[in-house]
Amino acid sequence: TRVTRVVAIDLGASSGRVVSVRVGPGLLEAVEEHRFPNEPVIVAGTLHWDVLRLLRGIEHGLRLARRHGPVDAIAIDSWAVDYGLLDADGRLLGNPVHYRDDRTLGVLAQLGTELDAAAVYRTTGLQEQRFNTLGQLAAARGSAQLAAARRLLMIPDLLAYWLTGVESAEVTNASTTQLFDATRRAWDPALIAHLGLPPDLFPVAVEPGTVIGPVLADVAARVGLDAGTPVVAVGSHDTASAVVGVPARGSDFAYISCGTWSLVGLELDAPVLTAASRAANATNELGVDGTVRYLRNTMGLWMLQECQRHWASGGGEVAGDGEVAGDGEPAGDGEPVGLDELLRRAAAEPIATWLVDADDERFLAPGDMPARIARCAGEHGPTPQTPAQVVRCILDSLALAYRRSIALLAELSGREVRVVHVVGGGSQNALLCQLTADACELPVVAGPTEAAALGNALVQARALGAVVGGLPELRGLLAATQPLRTHLPGGDPHVWADAADRLRGALRASP
Ligand code: ADP
Ligand code: LRH
Fold first, then answer.
1. What is the C-alpha end-to-end distance of the chain, expressed in Å?
2. What CA–CA distances, in Å, run from 157 to 171, 200, 211, 223, 322?
3. SS3 string of 107-170?
4. What are 86-112's pLDDT values in tens digits?
5. Is 321 an active-site residue?
6. Taking the CB of residue 241, how many other CB atoms lie within 10 A of it?
7. CA–CA–CA angle 285, 287, 290 (5° rounding)
8. Which of 17, 88, 354, 443 is the most exposed place for a label (fewest CB within 10 A)?
9. Residue located nearest, by CA, to atom 12 of ligand 1
């Protein structure tokens, strides 16, 4: 083994980052080369990703990384479910649509009349969400764009295609489409046929660690990379890379990949495809090294981000009927309060007073989030009045959702959980981590913040031979080199049990 330097490109829903990482025996050292915002654009009423701007951010980051040292390999991970379509000439057909777009409203009811949902779960293991690729493609049926499509590439595969000219489908991200067999780790021809799509719309799936191809000569020249620099398939779903980046010892851990979304889960050897698992809305996404990410998708810090966006645009009131600020630019002259200050004020508010169901679909779309939170809390309890109370409501509700998810997943899988690892941007939120420890009555280990980039880099480095072993060895390297913070459970656990009962009761009573 030798020291290698790889570049991990990690595209989250809120930002993209390009990180150079040196890996070798006992060595894991990351430098953020470039970070750029990921801002959706509404075009003709549809919410899109600005995918060319992401490509520009990636190329700029690669240029900086190369300026600072040799680059042995590159890999890309991103959010799941979304895709681009290529025509017969290999050109992109339109801009990829954002999973938060409302084109899929009503699609679950429609699919429910066509497909046996229980059978779909037994094959794909996937939680029913309207924005899964299956739902998006069902909503797009009959469009000229889909008729012209020769290839479908998931977002990281699309970007890797632009870097290499090679079309591929990486398994972890393919597993989020709900068109993928979770047991065989391959596309499901029957579901693809059901949508009326040709099977070869989907490239053959490859496991993480496979070299996709060398970077194209013109790209290499433009960004200053050496000819032949390999682009590697890693856990190209950001959550899959983040789970590699969990610094756990042993197998008795739960993880929370805590960013725009909160993915709360366990790592298993095989999917759980039971009716009880389906009823619990638990999902089996595929992980690196043949693992299964058995998890629940919780709304996450999106709720907080979207409140901050609202307040920054001058909407100081909690209850209002504001519309989506399409461009995310501050529109008013309100003095926005920074995140640190908001969290400080929230910490001073009383515990578990304002609660919402953090799994509630109503929080999915962009728009006036403070008003939606106030309305949902008010349906069964007190209404948060100030920004500090809204933030407190979000954090307590997330902690409660984590408690619920971990208990459910442990029960459904038979796995014991003794520690919770929180990774991603939200691991820097000490209040949320402490509330999580208290609510789950388990120690929380917080960090690394850039778990996805580190997990991405570790799988590349292993493919190059710079690190040897399975996930335990990769995680041992993380635990030995990354700064982590432990939050021990404290407070009165009855408060959380009562809050859980209150919310459960309210949800049961709701229509
Ligand atoms: P994504 O990968 O989905 O783009 P990240 O993992 O980058 O998301 O997490 C972004 C979130 O992390 C932000 O919405 C914010 O709530 C949280 N965060 C980032 N920095 C801090 C910080 N210094 N303190 C507390 N929370 C933070
Ligand atoms: C997190 C994430 C999550 C998916 C969602 C669409 O970034 O990949 O795992 O469910 O985005």
1. 60
2. 11, 15, 12, 20, 37
3. HHHHHHHHCCHHHHHHHHCCCCCCCCHHHHHHHCCCCHHHHHCCEEEEHHHHHHHHHHCCCCEE
4. 999 999 999 999 999 999 999 999 999
5. no
6. 32
7. 115
8. 88
9. 425
Output the residue whose Cα is nearest ligand 1's atom 3: 260
Average pLDDT over residues 371-384: 96
Burial (Cβ within 10 Å: 0-12, 13-18, ≥19) of residue 113: exposed
Task: Please work out whether the CB of residue 245 comes within 6 Å of at least one atom of ligand 1.
Answer: no
Q: Count of CB atoms within 10 A of residue 116's CB?
A: 9
Whether the CB of 80 sits within 6 Å of ligand 2: yes
Share of the chain above pLDDT 70, in %: 95
The per-residue pLDDT for 1 is: 60
| The pair of three-digit structure tokens given for residue 358, joined into one six-digit string | 């953090």
Q: How confident is the model at residue 376 (pLDDT cuts 50, 70, 90)?
A: very high
Per-residue pLDDT for 299 more than 70? Answer: yes
Whether ipTM exceeds 0.95? yes
Is the distance from CB of 467 to CB of 458 less than 8 angstroms?
yes
What is the reported pLDDT for 325?
35
302 lines ligand 2 (CB under 6 A): no
**pLDDT category, 319, cuts 50, 70, 90?**
very low
- In one letter, which amino acid is 408? L
Mutual angle of helices 430-440 and 339-347, in 10-degree steps: 40
Token pair in block for residue 7:
């570049």
Give the phi and the psi of residue 22 in degrees, each rounded to 5. Answer: -95, 130
> How far is ligand 1, taken at its centre, from the CA of residue 426, in Å?
5
Backbone phi and psi for residue 108, each to the nearest 5 degrees, phi listed first: -65, -40
Looking at the CA of residue 99, tell me the nearest atom of ligand 2: 6
